[in-house]
């Protein structure tokens, strides 16, 4: 490479210091990088002429050397090649990092020749020395481009996948990827993912094979190695160890990939099983829902039929009630007409038991009474009087009230009714209307019986008619009217209302 890009005065077997001194101005490195990637280092400060080139390779200023090295390292990093520090070219620097970088440039160059397969991973096996410098290429790498396409198609999963060195983290990514997905989509996603993983794995294997091939090709005639070092036994052992480490890491990668695939297949199988269970559960729920829905529809239909039936019954009952009210009203009218026909004014006669052995009553019929009157011209006289009904001395309180009772109902139908007793002192008015002192059920008089019926009928009609019942009790004696229910202490005399 040195022969190609410069450094013609370099001995055939240069020492490490001589090689480092040759690279120190950055010209060879920049030129080499531009050879494999034209324009990678846009500006290279060249030496004035080959004749002026000193043995230590520094014919330009320290600043210009530094600028070349800086441009080179920036370009190498942009290409994803392992880089090093400028101080690594100084005595005491880490020369192995410089060697890694040069080997990577060579591998990159050969990768371009064999179909643009990136070989920057050449240095990835030496993570202990340059892992922080090894990054994915940012441009010009066809694999990176194709991976990028897949990444976009795969929701950026592949991007993380490239960045992750750990298969377990990839597995976690897969879990994370499917976690929020719809259960129904998971089998397809897993299948698609497996396909992509297989594709990725195959491509990596291809790349690894290419790398191995190139590395093996490098073994017998590595220009860099012959240029860089006069190989010592220790260095050869170090390179072998590095290759061994690379292979071991490749094996570890393969093992991890295999485990990941197994895990993914297992997860897919498990998800399919879960999905089948879920589908069965959903089907059962659907069946239950349909059954419940059918039952509810049946109940709803039956309920509607019952409501319709009840509505019809209610209508008939309402109609019957309306008819009943009409009949009741008719009955009421007829009833009161009967009362009217019996007479608006009815006069009953009740004969008190007589204390004398022989009274003046000659005969009592249902509607008349005959009285003995003093004889005229030696003949016994007799007078007969007619009433609505006559009650003899043995008549009971109940018999007397029976003829009056229908009038109580007329009162509640809105008719005015007056019942009063008339007769001389001691004829039995109080006995008939109130009964004796401390009356019982049998001897109680017309007033109590009438009031009892009044409250009874009003209670029976309370759902249809609201009655207000008031009572007033007056005494008319010696042409004086008194309020017998007055609570003023002194019975007030008529008129009861105050003057003002
Ligand atoms: N049908 C009857 N059966 C039994 N006893 C009677 C009957 N009618 C009246 N008497 C008795 O006759 C007496 C006088 O009756 P009562 O006091 O009712 O008369 P009165 O018409 O109210 O008198 P007054 O106008 O003076 O108040 C009472 O002792 C009463 O018990």
From TrEMBL:
Plastid recorded as keyword: no
Signal sequence interval, chain numbering: none
Keyword Hydrolase: no
Gene3D superfamilies with a match to the protein in the record: Calponin-like domain (1.10.418.10), Kinesin motor domain (3.40.850.10)
Domain Kinesin motor positions: 344-500
Residue span, Calponin-homology (CH) domain: 1-110
One Pfam family it belongs to: Microtub_bd
Residues that bind ATP: 423-430
Superkingdom to which the source organism belongs: Eukaryota
Ranges annotated as biased composition (Acidic residues): 233-243
Region described as Disordered: spans on this chain: 126-160, 232-252
Protein keywords: ATP-binding, Motor protein, Nucleotide-binding
Compositional bias of kind Basic and acidic residues: 149-160
InterPro entries for this protein: CH_dom (IPR001715), CH_dom_sf (IPR036872), Kinesin-like_fam (IPR027640), Kinesin_motor_dom (IPR001752), Kinesin_motor_dom_sf (IPR036961), P-loop_NTPase (IPR027417), Vik1/Cik1_MT-bd (IPR031852)
Family: Belongs to the TRAFAC class myosin-kinesin ATPase superfamily. Kinesin family. KIN-14 subfamily.
Protein name: Minus-end-directed kinesin ATPase
Organism: Stylosanthes scabra
């Amino acid at each position: 490479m040195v022969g190609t890009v410069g450094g013609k005065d370099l001995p055939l077997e240069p020492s490490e210091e001589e090689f480092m001194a040759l690279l120190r101005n950055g010209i060879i490195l920049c030129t080499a990088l531009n050879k494999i990637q034209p324009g990678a280092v846009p500006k290279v400060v060249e030496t004035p002429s080959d004749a002026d080139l000193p043995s230590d390779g520094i014919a330009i200023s320290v600043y210009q050397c530094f600028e070349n090295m800086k441009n080179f390292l920036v370009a190498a990093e942009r290409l994803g090649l392992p880089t090093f520090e400028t101080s690594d070219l100084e005595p005491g620097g880490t020369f192995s990092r410089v060697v890694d970088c040069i080997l990577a440039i060579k591998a990159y160059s050969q990768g371009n020749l064999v179909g643009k397969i990136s070989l920057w991973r050449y240095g990835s096996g030496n993570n202990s020395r340059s892992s922080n410098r090894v990054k994915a290429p940012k441009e010009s790498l066809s694999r990176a481009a194709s991976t990028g396409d897949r990444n976009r198609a795969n929701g950026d999963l592949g991007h993380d996948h490239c960045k992750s060195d750990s298969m377990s983290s990839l597995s976690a990514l897969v879990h994370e990827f499917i976690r929020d997905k719809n259960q129904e989509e998971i089998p397809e996603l897993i299948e698609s993912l497996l396909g992509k993983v297989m594709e990725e794995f195959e491509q990596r294997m291809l790349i690894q094979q290419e790398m191995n091939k190139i590395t093996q090709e490098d073994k017998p005639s590595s220009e860099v190695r012959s240029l860089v070092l006069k190989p010592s036994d220790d260095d050869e052992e170090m390179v072998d160890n590095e290759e061994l480490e690379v292979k071991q890491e490749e094996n570890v990668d393969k093992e991890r990939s295999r485990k990941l695939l197994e895990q993914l297949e297992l997860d897919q199988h498990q998800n399919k099983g879960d999905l089948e269970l879920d589908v069965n559960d959903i089907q059962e729920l659907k069946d239950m829902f349909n059954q419940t829905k059918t039952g509810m529809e049946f109940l709803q239909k039956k309920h509607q039929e019952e409501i319709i039936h009840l509505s019809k019954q209610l209508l008939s009952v309402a109609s019957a009630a309306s008819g009943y009210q009409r009949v009741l009203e008719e009955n009421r009218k007829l009833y009161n007409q009967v009362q009217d026909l019996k007479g608006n004014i009815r006069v009953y006669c009740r004969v008190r038991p007589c204390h004398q052995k022989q009274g003046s009553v000659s005969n009592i019929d249902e509607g008349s009474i005959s009285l003995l009157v003093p004889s005229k011209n030696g003949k016994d006289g007799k007078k007969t009087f007619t009433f609505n009904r006559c009650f003899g001395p043995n008549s009971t309180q109940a018999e007397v009230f029976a003829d009056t009772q229908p009038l109580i109902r007329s009162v509640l139908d809105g008719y005015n009714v007056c019942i009063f007793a008339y007769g001389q002192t001691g004829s039995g008015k109080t006995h008939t209307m109130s009964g004796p002192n401390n009356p019982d059920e049998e001897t109680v008089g017309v007033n109590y019986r009438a009031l009892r019926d009044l409250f009874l009928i009003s209670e029976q009609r309370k759902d249809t008619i609201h009655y207000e019942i008031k009572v007033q009790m007056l005494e008319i004696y010696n042409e004086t009217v008194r309020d017998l229910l007055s609570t003023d202490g002194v019975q007030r005399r008529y008129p009861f209302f105050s003057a003002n």
